[in-house]
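Entry for the shared binder. Reason: the reviewer on the internal report wants the predicted structure included alongside the sequence.
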Amino acid sequence: MELYLKNVQSIKDKVLKQQLFANRSNYSNDIEIEVAKNGHLTLRKNNHYLYSRYDPIKEVSKFIDSQIDSLANIYCLFGFGLGYHVEQLMVKEPSKKIFVIDTEISTIQAAMYHVDLTKILSNENVRIIILNNPTQIQEFIRSIDSDGLNIKWIIPQSWISTISNSKLKEILEDIKIKEMSILRMKNIMEENFQNNIQLFDSHIGPLLGQFEGKKAALVAAGPSLDDNTDVLRQLKNKYFLFCVGAAYKTLLHQKIEPDAIVISDPHHFVFEQIKDVTSQIPLLFLATVNKEVVRHWIGPKIILFQEGYPLSEQYAKEHQIPLIQTGGSVATTGLDVLLKMGFAEIVFFGQDLAYKGNQSHSTHSTSNKTVSLYQSTFAVKANNHQRVTTSRSWLVFKKWIEQKIQQTTSVHFKNTSYTGAMIKGAPYVAGEHLANSAKNMENINFLDLISKLIK
């Protein structure tokens, strides 16, 4: 009891102290504290060990070493346990903010009876947050993500194993999967970045605002692109044909050369989008794109430095280069590029954000695949007023595009995808109508125009 009171007295956080006083009952029976083989305490919850039964602190120290991210502003750690993870984070990242999220105050109470936690509880960089249900955790995630900070999430797998709430477990496993993916991609992206900053001819700066009054077609790789390739052929030299990498071979198959191509993916498979192709059109690419794409390209190479990637932000700041918002996909990246270039009208081609039957992309797209029967899908309203299926990620991109449209009142947006998802602010227009209107437009050699601007 004396240790417990000592811990309580060291608490700086008034909210946590109130929660402890409000919950004075003994901690839950599903929490068991045992002595490990080396003499340190270990903890078992719901019959699952949170730590090693042999050397818990050594195991935690090794795990935290693998999670350290020097670029992180804040660490979010799920599960307090006996405080071992928090303590190791404090030692290894003494100046960083640490949010510790737990679903039960009783777990912390149990630790306070057995472990001296005064260094943690009195540390102003550490904030312990009790969130009792999945909704609260989702709201917390949304609120902290919206702050624009570089957040590193740490979720020990052993802690997930103790959770009985299936919805909560799903949320945490989703976050953990994303974190593992980011960790795997981190080295790839950095290697690409260091190579690509040696290879570019220009950045986006010289193109800013240079296309006012002109029109652009953003060509994505959705299934409806197959229905509009003839229209795009008629828009050549009228509209700026800006093609995402996944749609490039669909256009080439139809003998349509776009005015520029944009590629963003850091993985090696993106090279398939330009493999066996020789072209003089400009390539616009994220600084972290697969380095082989940039090495292979013989036309003008225009690099894009993206918001949210620290190396890009640092380089852009040092060289006074504008940043690009990516929105999470190559098409959303392309949209932000077109807006920064100053186009007065942007027409979406192949921006379906939905499946056509079981087809994901246009026929000759390098990304085309058949939808799995076991894949999670959602129903949305299409431009033909039918219901179409879409994916969770496409819903995210759709929302991002709609927000961008809402924020950009000076630009006219149109959408040619009759069977694709409706995009608020981009009403459907038949491709034939665009082709007829374009007959009276002046011819523009966009390749020459860009070449002059980036010299």
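Summary line for the report: The mean pLDDT is 88.
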